[in-house]
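Backbone-to-sequence.
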């Protein structure tokens, strides 16, 4: 029996860095309804279909640099061969393998279709066959956490930062790590004794009292250390911070040919990952504001979409203030990301007053009243603007002046760098 050996070229799937591919699919996985900007984004899930995932993977393979040039040549074959059908089938098989691998790794999962399943079990059809509708998928918590990590890594890497510590200040505190000269022990200090300082104090006290230090190993030998002799080491005091990130999810965030909400969500996920891994003493909450406002769990942030339509800045600030007033932290701040001026408020009876034309004096006055309430509560408001509307610029500058915060004029592409750098640097400048 004869055997023929050929060169093993491996599988194309093995050449694909799945994590890099998932990162390149972040716009799809964090989609905010931009695929249907002129309608109600909550009506359709066109960007949650397997077909949309298929198309996004295809785009990443050929335009995203996921495959090397040599791998692409092997995949497409020689045009002169004329066997394009075989190449097309090979591409489809590779994409299907990638989707299966993403499911195995826990990045996506098939979305349950309870209505069709219920109809099928009752014998009413549906759920099967060609008329069953598009197959959907859901993004997992693992995928959202990974996207937050990659966003944080990319953002910090782009500004020359590879890691970040806790929020250092100019204050000193007693702790485990020594950072300054020792100090006398006071009740409540961490009992991290400084041995040399303590013994020196005891010897000086005995000398001042005219007593000699007994040598030897007898009952009276040694140095008697008393309470006033104790010295403790000092470490740098690291402050804690409570942050509410306020995201404008009014309809304008996906209009005018630009998706502004998806980059904002990506930044919020990066900030959440930063706080969880590098600042464990800090807290972060997320508030969406539109016609009204609501707090959402951070793990759901990557799944939310824009809508409804108006911008109720006052209700968002009020909710954020109530959240922060419950936090016992050295610093409390609101990070507001918006692209529109206030156009709605909630009246005391629960009715929502709306006016999208210009700056309504009633809406502006009520919003500034809430800004003043935040200032009295010691809450800083830093605003990141994604638009250049003159009315919005004037409004945001007034907010910054009242709360002694900052107003950043940025774009969806530079938003992340501004937010993260401001978060990591501001404590050192404000706590002395």
């Amino acid at each position: 029996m004869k055997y023929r050996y050929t060169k093993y070229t491996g599988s194309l799937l093995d050449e694909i860095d799945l994590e890099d591919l998932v990162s390149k699919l972040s716009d799809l996985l964090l989609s905010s309804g931009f695929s249907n900007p002129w309608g109600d984004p909550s009506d359709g899930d066109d960007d949650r279909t397997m077909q949309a995932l298929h198309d996004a993977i295809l785009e990443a393979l050929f335009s995203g640099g996921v495959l090397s040039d040599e791998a692409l040549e092997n995949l497409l074959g020689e045009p002169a061969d004329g066997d394009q059908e075989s190449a097309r089938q090979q591409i489809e098989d590779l994409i299907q393998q990638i989707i299966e691998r993403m499911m195995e790794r826990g990045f996506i999962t098939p979305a349950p279709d309870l209505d069709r399943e219920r109809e099928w079990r009752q014998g009413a059809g549906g759920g099967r066959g060609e008329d069953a509708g598009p197959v959907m998928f859901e993004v997992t918590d693992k995928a959202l956490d990974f996207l937050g990590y990659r966003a944080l890594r990319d953002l910090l890497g782009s500004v020359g930062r590879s890691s970040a510590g806790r929020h250092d200040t100019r204050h000193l505190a007693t702790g485990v790590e020594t950072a300054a000269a020792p100090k006398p022990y006071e009740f409540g200090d961490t009992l991290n004794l400084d041995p040399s300082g303590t013994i020196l104090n005891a010897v000086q006290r005995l000398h001042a009292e005219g007593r000699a230090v007994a040598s030897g190993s007898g009952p009276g030998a040694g140095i008697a250390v008393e309470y006033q002799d104790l010295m403790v080491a000092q470490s740098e005091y690291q402050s804690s911070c409570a942050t509410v990130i306020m995201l404008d999810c009014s309809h304008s965030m996906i209009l005018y040919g630009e998706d502004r909400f998806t980059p904002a969500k990506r930044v919020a996920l990066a900030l959440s990952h930063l706080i969880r891994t590098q600042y464990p003493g800090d807290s972060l909450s997320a508030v969406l504001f539109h016609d009204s406002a609501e707090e959402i769990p951070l793990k759901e942030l990557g799944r939310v979409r824009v809508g409804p339509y108006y911008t109720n800045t006052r209700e968002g600030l009020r909710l954020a203030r109530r959240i922060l007033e419950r936090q016992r932290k050295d610093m409390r701040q609101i990070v507001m990301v918006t692209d529109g001026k206030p156009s709605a408020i909630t009246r005391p009876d629960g009715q929502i007053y709306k006016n999208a034309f210009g700056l309504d004096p009633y809406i502006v006055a009520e919003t500034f009243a809430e800004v003043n309430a935040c200032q009295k509560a010691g809450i800083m408001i830093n605003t990141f603007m994604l638009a250049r509307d003159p009315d919005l610029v004037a409004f945001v500058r007034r907010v910054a002046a009242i709360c002694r915060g900052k107003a950043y004029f940025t774009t969806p592409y530079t938003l992340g760098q501004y937010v993260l750098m401001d978060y990591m640097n501001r404590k050192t400048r404000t706590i002395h």
